[in-house]
Amino acid sequence: MAVGLLSHVVSDLILGKPALPWLPSNASVRDALRALKQLGDGVSELSIWDCSGKICSHDIGDPLAQSDVGAHINCRCVGKVCMQKIVCHLASEKSLFDFPEALDVPVSSLLEHNATNPVVQHVDPDASLLEALDLIARGVQNLVIPITRKSIHNVKQVKGSTTLKARSLPANLNIVVPKDHGGQEYCWLTPEDVLRFLLGSISIFSPLPALSIEALGIIRSDVQMIEVGQDACSELELIEMACQDSSAVAIVDSTTSSPGTVHFVGDISCSALQTCNELASLALISLSAGDFLAFVQDCRKPPQILVDIIRTRVHEKLGLGMRNSSHIKQITLKPENVTFLLHKLEMWEESSSSEDDEYGSASPNGPHDLSHKWHSMHLRNSRKGFSVRCRSGPIFCSPRSSLIAVVLQALAHREQYVWVTREDNSLYGIVTIRDILTVMFNHIKTFN
């Protein structure tokens, strides 16, 4: 059975995967934002491509951008963007002072440039499963693989008449589909895909599945965290780093915990921000970490108290920036750049005014007293689920949880990580899919 597993190549793992929607590296952040909104459910990331030929030189989505067969050899996927990256970019102080300009910068400026440890890497479809595991263990998050005729043929054999098709996209969607690469389509393989594939042969890894994650030593204690009362934007770099690592930033409360421990409240992650839009950047730059957590849970119709806080603090930051920051003084402030954002906040107010929040008049501290109520809101929502597309809140496990239990939990929720907490809900650490695959990869190497 082990020999059969090791004989697999990466093309066996991509059967039926849709072609990647993508943007050229010279596209703007505005283009990426529009594409993420229009792609909708199931797509949280866009691949960014750099082509030396004519493929990416036309306007995005231009049908004339089609090139000759074989031209795809000049095209390389150079990275990926998600809503979290865009929100962090727009939450910078410079972006606040010229929001339209921040939307018009090339999307490639949001990518991390690390030639030594790239997060995206092209892989031959005949590369072995071991090679894929080795790349993931070294930090690669997405393996870009060309969809071959062999893959299409194999899918057609499944259930007789199944045909591989690219994702069905809205007719007015202004993005490029990978077939523009000289007729070549690409998909990518994620650590989640590999782990799901290995789950079918989990008995090979005995006794690892039955061992606790604590015994295996895969719990990371170097967790990125923000105090719940701290300004969310004060740790903007941490949030950006978590996005690059396919991890998350923990929101913690040390005031209710014993010395040396912190109480886990929630997290900020790519999946948490997937349902938000560019206005989340104003919340990030204006709210505390706890209030931002409450905002993200219902970013389409945030509580009115948060809308008021955001509006007030945006005005305050503009005023303080002009007086106290020598860097900001060099920027020509255009009031209209923020006016249209505040107008959208007013639209939020109109849409949410007709609905009473459940923590409204019943609160002993007054309507929507989020300074005291965000904590109970989160614990209820994270445990029982809340109305957010593709996410029901952070997932938890115990240090004594078995490896197989954590694997099933991560795959069921389609998360790249699982938080590890003690019985008193204090934060112990985090386990990532990459750590799990590294342990399994080291076990497989003993077969040879």
Automatic annotation (TrEMBL):
GO cellular component: cytoplasm; nucleus
Family annotation (PANTHER family): AMP-ACTIVATED PROTEIN KINASE, GAMMA REGULATORY SUBUNIT, CBS DOMAIN-CONTAINING PROTEIN
PROSITE patterns: CBS
Keyword Repeat: yes
SUPFAM superfamilies named in the record: CBS-domain pair
Record protein name field: CBS domain-containing protein
Species of the source: Ceratopteris richardii (Triangle waterfern)
Location of the CBS domain: 390-446
Keyword Repeat: yes
Pfam families: CBS (PF00571)
UniProt keyword terms in alphabetical order: CBS domain, Repeat
